[in-house]
Design goal:
With 160 residues, the chain is α+β, with helices and mostly antiparallel strands. The protein has two helices and ten strands; from the N terminus they run αβββαβββββββ. A four-stranded mixed beta sheet has the order 4-5-1-10, with no helix packed on it. The chain has a four-stranded antiparallel beta sheet with strand order 3-2-6-7, with no helix packed on it. β4 and β5 form a beta hairpin. It is elongated. 18% of the residues are buried. Keywords: Signal.
Amino acid sequence: MGRIRVFGLAAVLLLSLAVPGCAEACPAIGWINAVNIELDGHVDDVAAVELCFDGVCSEAAPFVRLTDVPLHVATALPEDDPTAASTAESLLFSTERINERTWRITFPTQAPDSLTVRAVSAAGEVLAEGDATLEWQRVGGSERCGGPLEGAPIGLDIPS
């Protein structure tokens, strides 16, 4: 009887050591999801790329072509519309101009299903606009813990 008790205790001890080793510990939460906007057509007048989500559009900061500093934009609810907070979900993001035809949009831990993309001139004129359904693919992390996603590129044609 003493052997069975010792054997059972040893089995329980080994099992208790093995079970925590099977659990995956998630790292601190925080990652960046990204998607590229590929412009086609007449891109010479494009000064910024704006996003609209749930009826709220970003405001593009002025773009200076002579610098390599990326253009960062974050959506904001209109200050003069007190009902906007209840009707629109805030979407935080930044934009970066990679080259004449490619802009990279990053979202901290957010992955919207769809949004509207606009190319605008320095004067604020909308040169082109299109709705996009985003298709995300995991490029890091895990299904259980989450992690960065990469969206399929979004094309936007700028007419002449």
